[in-house]
Structures are given as structure tokens and as C-alpha cells.
Amino acid sequence: xxxxxxxxxxxxxxxxxxxxxATKASSDPATDRTTKWIREQIADRAKTGDAIALAxxxxxxxxxxxxxxxxxxxxxLPNPEQLRDAALEALRAQIPKLADRDCEPVFxxxxxxxxxxxxxxxxxxxxxxxxxxLAKMTTWLREQIQSRIRLGSVNELVDAAAAxxxxxxxxxxxxxxxxxxxxxxxxxxxxxxVAVRERIPTMSDAQCKYVYDxxxxxxxxxxxxxxxxxxxxxxxDERARKLVRASGTEPQNPELERAIAANLENxxxxxxxxxxxxxxxHPRGALIALQLRAESDRSLHAAAVAHLAEHADALLxxxxxxxxxxxxxxxxxxxxxxxxxxxxYLSYDANLGVENEASLAEILELLLAHPSGRYxxxxxxxxxxxxxENTLDDLTAIFAARxxxxxxxxxxxDFVYQEETEMSWYQVGDLARLWAAVPRLRRLIVQxxxxxxxxxxxxxxxxxxxxxxxxxxxxxxxxxxxxxxxLRFLDVWYGDPNYGGxxxxxxxxxxxxxxxxxxxxxxxxxxxxxTDAICGELARAPLAAQLEDLDLSMGTMxxxxxxxxxxAASALSRLVKLDVSxxxxxxxxxxxxxxxxxxxxxxDQNDAGDDDGERHPTxxx
Length: 621
Description:
Blueprint: H1 3-7, H2 13-16, H3 29-48, H4 51-61, E1 67-68, E2 71-72, H5 80-94, H6 100-113, H7 120-151, H8 154-164, E3 171-173, E4 176-178, H9 185-199, H10 205-218, H11 225-247, H12 254-262, H13 267-279, H14 284-294, H15 301-310, H16 312-315, E5 334-337, E6 340-349, H17 360-369, E7 378-385, H18 393-402, E8 409-412, E9 427-430, E10 443-447, E11 450-452, E12 463-467, H19 473-480, E13 489-495, H20 509-512, E14 522-528, H21 531-537, E15 549-551, H22 559-567, E16 577-579, H23 587-596, E17 600-601
Parallel strand pairs: 6-7, 7-8, 8-10, 9-11, 10-12, 12-13, 13-14, 14-15, 15-16, 16-17
Antiparallel strand pairs: 1-2, 3-4, 5-6
Helix pairs in contact: 3-5, 4-5, 4-6, 7-9, 8-9, 8-10, 10-11, 11-17, 12-13, 13-14, 14-15, 17-18, 21-22, 22-23
């Protein structure tokens, strides 16, 4: 009989069992129904072999729990010992027949409740079966290792050595999940290591690079330093040859080139250069002319693309293998404009399995050395190899030394948050040396888990965004004190204290006190753990009076913070738009903001009750 039948009273002795002896007049019908229902459940579980349910029932009836078969047992239940003994008897009968997969859960309940059930024989049988299974697995792995040795599959062998070196965790080896109790784990690992060592002198350059990376990450006892040094020297020579080829023999006109760099939008200078290059017989002249005309006549776009493909050797050279981003997106890496590469997106995720022999640093060097990259206006760096290990330091070092004067927009950390990587996993690195190399920069985005900004001086910058799940105090100070007199738009994500966002409102105050940013009309103080405190400072902030767009989204604003904003309405007299989306506001608080301000965005509010009453910024990890 089911629980719901019992609850409806259909299982009462009077209704269902009139053949037995009459109950005592003083007995409680409800407890009689409970006792009978439990006995029926024990019998049902015994028939179906549900040993886990029987063990849990015996444990509860022994005083270790409050529920039997999903029902809370009343304190008035008479003779629970008899029901416990019935459950124990049924459980003992099931022990010899237990499936291997059910043994450990049942054994755990028996041990937890100290049930008088002898599991010694079944445990010994289980251990014996496990030994047989582990022996078979070990034999299979040894066969796989020997097979890879014969095939020369050194990459698979070093991967196996790395996985077998990690104890206590399931790892994938040759496509099989390896349990922590695998026998001869160390011996199998050593067999792989010996096989890899023997192949070091003969492995290919690609294998050498792969093995070196795995050895370094897994700290394997394999000495591949000499072989890797040979590879590094070879790659350096090849890199130097590519750079020479990239700089090429294209005719140069320094006077015209300086004129274009000074004013990228002046069509006349491009046309003069196009004519001059055509007299020199170089295909870039025709490309400049075609792309200029295509800006007003889209029908010429196909002709420009065809011309570029036809003269790829002269116009791309060693850049040709890198015209697509080295991921699985098939995205163009270069955007052409007026005969030159105007925009570049460089990204390579080593974890995607996409083949890329050149590092992003090598590609960037080629781009900056090649005449096609002479007027680079926009550059974005995505993932630089291994997102868990590599910063952008090697790229920013190259760029700091060789940044073109034409650069106007720079995006460091151009990745899709959560889809490609978590915010906190991506480490941008040290950017302090970069600013002096890009004095004409107008647009800057820095996105990642951590970065060091140093002293920022960007006299032409108009748009800046710093997106992170954890802004350090040092970076907050750098932003608050940055020298960028033409700045119009500023977004700062302060982040979660659990992910390095250790700022407080005290580190926002110097920014709010600025009086030397006359063009700044958009301010985003976003993703903050101290949004309420920020709201409390706006009424007396000198910067507030000039703001037209205030973005406090993704933060921890409560109704108290909203009240402070309403109180600051007179100080925010020029405000056209207020964004408080993704905070913790009630409908009443939002209504109050909409009465005080003209245009309020308040989408996707969070409920603090969903997180034990705590409020967190939207982006942390």
C-alpha cells in the first residue's frame, strides 16, 4: 500500500483487515495504520531488493534519523524495535545478493548507524572483484602504453605520464577514466616517462614543443631542456627570417607616410600615396585606390578583396597564415582599410586543439614589421595561449617598444566572459610601460581578472573601460588619478572581495572629487560591493554636477542606496540616464528613482534571499 493511500485512511485495520483479532479499545487507529504501512513497505522493499531503503529504515528506527520510506515517524509510534528488527531481517537477507554498485552505500549506512548486520563476507567478495577489475585495467593500460611506444605516439605517452602522476583524482588516460586506487600507478607512469625520454632525440619540432609544455605543467622528471633550446634557437632564426621578409622591399615615401600617420582620415594623402606606389609598380597603390572608392561604392568591395588575394605575397607575405584568428571561430584576424590593415584581433586558445605553430607574440611582431601594419588603428588581444597560465606581458612588451603612432583603439582581454573563460582566470599583466607608447590612443578597454596599471597618462583618450571581477586598490588609485583631460566616457568595475576586489568607497572618492575632467559626461561605477556607499557620496561629489549618464549597474545597491540616490538628485542636475540594473532593489525603490530621475534602467534585479541575505557584485569569478 502506498503512502497516499495510507494518508487517505484506506489502510485502516477496520477497512482492510477484518480477519485478524480485534484491536484493543484503547489503541490509536492512526498509529496502527502507521505501523502497518511501515511493515508493508519493508515487505515491498524486500521483494524488490531495495537494500539501501531497508538500511536507511533500520537506521532511523534505531534512532539515527526521523524518516522511514519518506515519511516522518511520530514520536508515539509503539514498538519501533519490532519494526527495526523486521527491517534488519530483510536487510540481512539482501546482503549476499547486493549488486556491487549498491555495496558501498549500504555499508556506509550500516557503519553510520552501527547496525547489527554482518557485511564481512560481502565486503570481502566486493574487494576481490575490485582487485580483479583493477588488474584487468592495469593490464589494459600496459598494453596501450606498448601500443603507443610502437606507434611513436609520444604526445599520448607524455599525457599519460602527466595523468598518472596525479594521485587521488580520476584522470583520463587513453580515453579511460583512471580511479585513484589503480594498482601499479607509479610503475605505469614510469614506463611512460622512460618511453618519452628515449624519444627526445628523434621527436619532431611539434612534438618537442608539446612535450615541453606538458613536462613543465606536470613537473615530470624528464630532461628536455637541451632539445627545447635547439628548437627555440631554430624558431628564433625562422622568426628573424620572417621579420626580414615582412619588412620586405616595398618602396617607401617617409614624407607621405608621416602625413598619413598624423591624420588617418585625410583621403588626399592616401590618394597621393596610391598614385606614387603605382608609379613604383607596387600593388598596394591599386589596393588603396580600390578601397577608398569602395567606401562610397560598395560594389567595388569584391574587386578589392580579389586584388588582395591576387597579390597576397606582396601585401601579406608571412602574415598570410594568420589571416584567420587561431581559434575555431573562422573569424578574420585583420580588417583592411585604404590599402592597409586598420584593425587586428589576435587570439589563440591552446586548449581548443587548433593548430598554431606561431605564438601571438610572433604574429604581433610580424604585423608591426610588415608595411601592411604601418597604419594600424585598432588592436585587440584575446587569449594568449593558455588562459590559466599566460598573461599579455609578452605582447604588451612588444607593443610598448614598437607601437605604431596611428593606434587609436586598444582592447586588452577581448574575450567572451564565461563562454571562453571566467573573468578571474584571465590575467592581463603589467601595463605600466604601455601608456607612453600610445600617446594618441582614444579608446581603451582592459578586461580580466587582474592587472597592474601603473601611472596612466593618455592625453587624447576619450573612452576608457576597466572590466574585472576584482579591482585592486592600486588599480583603483591609478584610475582615480589618471591624467586624461579629454576623457568623455569612463566605466570601472570594482568587483568582489572574494576575487581580489579589495577596494572600498574610500578608493572611489578621489575620482568623484576630480574637477579637471571637463569632458566627462558618462561615469560607470559598476559591479561594486560598496554601491550603497557610493550612492551616499554622490550628493557632495564635485564630478556629479557634470554627469549626463550614470551607470551603477551589476552592483549591490539596496533600497537604502536608492534612497541616497534620490537625495542626491539635485546634485545630479544634468543627469539624462541612470542605470541601476542587476542590483537588489524592490519595486518601491525603483518607483522612487523613476520619480526623481528622467530615464531609469532597472532590469534584472536580484533577490538577496536567494543567497542567504548576502549581496554580491554580478561578476566575481
